From TrEMBL:
Residues 24-298 form the Tryptophan synthase beta chain-like PALP domain. It holds the Pfam family PALP. InterPro entries: Cys_Synth/Cystath_Beta-Synth (IPR050214), P-phosphate_BS (IPR001216), TrpB-like_PALP (IPR001926), TrpB-like_PALP_sf (IPR036052). Residues 1-20 are annotated as: Disordered. PANTHER family: CYSTATHIONINE BETA-SYNTHASE. One of its GO terms (biological process) is cysteine biosynthetic process from serine. PROSITE patterns: CYS_SYNTHASE. It comes from Demequina capsici. This is Pyridoxal-phosphate dependent enzyme. Its cofactor is pyridoxal 5'-phosphate. The keyword 4Fe-4S does not apply. GO terms for molecular function: transferase activity, transferring alkyl or aryl (other than methyl) groups. Belongs to the cysteine synthase/cystathionine beta-synthase family.
Length: 310
């Protein structure tokens, strides 16, 4: 019970623990129903991960990975963390590092939007850009080199079990609870594959009838935040055991759907969300009466400088 001073059971309001921290604000993101783009007879829902404090679904694994490394005695405040990422994980880790007292080096292929780069630097991250044509694979190799040469700790979101665990123990349960157990299909884009792996595992334990689909770019397509990995670089955290399937989406359709979400639904979402929404709309059309939820990884304002919404 709170007293007149705002504290709990007589505790002053400014006592440690009286108020939530940034980490406490991660998760619990809302879901909204599409009004105009959903096929008749079915329901399409968007889970707005851009409402996390650092602006994307990657806030969840960022805090989860740091917390796990601290529990395992691998890092302590003041240490240097290095990570290779296409953007959102870098922003989330930069924010987490700032509030938890870590130094952070981000390795990212050239070509990321200016908004993303500026946001990472605003949080105090040291940004190292690698040649775009060598892709994320080379960025991962450079991060490993920095780890060796500078004594940094590489969390390695591609092999870190704390990445999918964040979604298995939180995101999946949120989806089930927020849809009041009515969801029939869930769509997650595939970048590190942490979201789709964790959500499918979590739902398999509480609602195994729910079909979870992954989304990756069609051959030759480039969609920020999602990708199809060559076998030698396939993230080791990926687990397809509980997936109903993996769907491909063309780059142009992802862009067109992102534009349609903004102009017809009032949802300014990122391009990976456009790809996820496109697949969700397809599944809803193929399964009349279904309730299809897609995870929208981030907001569209991180891509305005690219001109895709112009």
């Amino acid at each position: 019970m709170n007293d007149a001073r705002g504290g709990k059971e007589g505790r002053p309001a400014d006592a440690p623990g009286a108020f939530p921290t940034l980490a406490d604000a991660v998760g619990g993101t809302p879901i909204v129903r599409l009004h105009r783009l959903a096929p008749p007879g079915s329901t399409v829902l968007a889970k707005l991960e851009g409402n996390n404090p650092a602006g994307s679904v990657k806030d969840r694994p960022a805090f989860s990975m740091i917390a796990a490394a601290e529990r395992d005695g691998l890092i302590a405040p003041g240490d240097l963390i290095v990570e290779a990422t296409s953007g959102n994980t870098g922003i989330a880790l930069a924010a987490a590092a700032a509030v938890l007292g870590y130094r952070f080096v981000l390795v990212i292929p050239e070509g990321s939007s200016q908004e993303r780069l500026d946001t990472m630097r605003a949080y105090g991250a040291d940004v190292v850009e690698t040649p775009r044509e060598q892709g994320m694979e080379h960025a991962r190799d450079v991060a490993a080199q920095i780890e060796r040469e500078r004594g940094a700790v590489r969390l390695d979101q591609f092999s870190n079990p704390a990445n999918p665990a964040a979604h298995e123990h939180a995101t999946a349960h949120e989806i089930w609870d927020q849809t009041r157990g009515l969801v029939t299909h869930v769509v997650c884009t595939m970048g590190t594959t942490g979201t789709v792996t964790g959500v499918s595992r979590g739902l398999a334990s509480i609602a195994p009838h729910v079909q979870v689909y992954g989304v990756q770019p069609a051959p030759g397509a480039s969609i920020p935040g999602i990708r199809a990995w060559p076998q030698e670089y396939l993230p080791s955290i990926f687990d397809a055991t509980h997936l109903a399937g993996v769907r491909e989406v063309a780059g142009e359709r992802a862009i067109e759907t992102a534009r349609a979400l903004a102009r017809n639904e009032g949802l300014l979402l990122g391009l990976s969300a456009g790809g996820a929404a496109a697949v969700a709309i397809d599944l809803a059309a193929e399964n009349p009466g279904s309730v299809v939820l897609f995870v929208a990884p981030d907001r569209g304002d991180r891509y305005l400088s690219t001109g895709v919404f112009g």
